[in-house]
Amino acid sequence: SSRSHFGSSLRRSVVALCVGVNSGCPEYASDIMEAFAPFGMNPPQQFVKHVEPGCPYRQDDVMAPEQAVSTGTTIMAVEFDGGVVMGADSRTSTGNYVANRASRKISKVHDRIFVCRCGSAADTQALTGFVMNYLGQHAVELGKLPTVNTAASLFKMLAYQNKDRLMAGLIVAGWDEKRGGQVYSIPLGGSVVRVPYACDGSGSGYISGLIDATYKPGMTESECVEFVTKAVAHAMARDGSSGGMIRTLVITKDGLKESALEGNKLPFGP
């Protein structure tokens, strides 16, 4: 009889637990505590958030919000004598879903200034739009082309002031009359550093050693293009969030040279 009493009490406990968790009512919470007490067991605690009256969000969304989707990319830029080479893959991912297989991650900021974007596509596109606006006004006031350093400083200012709200990694690169070709790295957090080469995104961790071993100071334009293409191809082969095609952009005093390498023509593949 004691065994049957144990079984019926346990069933009541489970029923009370299920009803109490699903309803969220306080009267069931005491029933759960009493049902578990004879067995020396503590029911799982459920922390409830306070929802203000008139809150526009559903209660279940507040109690158990969805996890943010993971994003990924591989972006890169290298400085050479006379300009810069920028490169990126073209895959925009939303978790395990490829949202766009031919996206453009190298965005124009001004005539000779571009930015490689990684992190949240929405955040980086918004930042780029603000900087394009401010830099355009600045160029009109100056009466000449703005410098790459000014563009990088604007990106840094916006990224740093909103660092708690943004997920944005940026590489600003371009050419100006004052300093020639320049590459500026702006990682998460909003710092800015001028570097001879930069790589960011989820695929960058796979190729950091390859980049350090392959990079040579004083490379020519064609060597830089080959270097960027090879590095990004290796990242695409290893990183599931990087893929599609490789887009490269060469920025010099004479203008822009843009090219795209299809996925079936990469120098390295899985």
Number of helices: 7
Q: What would you call the shape? A: globular
Query: Looking at the chains present, what oligomeric state does this protein adopt?
Result: single chain
pLDDT averaged residue by residue: 85
Question: What do you see in this structure?
Answer:
The protein is an alpha+beta fold. Helix content is 38%, strand content 25%. The protein has seven helices and twelve strands. The chain has helices spanning 2-23, 26-36, 59-63, 121-142, 148-161, 204-214, 221-238; strands spanning 75-80, 83-88, 92-94, 97-100, 106-110, 113-119, 168-176, 180-186, 193-194, 197-200, 246-252, 255-261. The strands form three sheets. The protein has a five-stranded antiparallel β-sheet, covered by helices on one side. A five-stranded antiparallel β-sheet has the order 5-6-7-8-9, covered by helices on one side. It has a two-stranded antiparallel ribbon with strand order 3-4. Helix 4 (121-142) crosses helix 5 (148-161). It is globular, with a radius of gyration of 27 Å. The model is unreliable at 19-24 (pLDDT under 50).
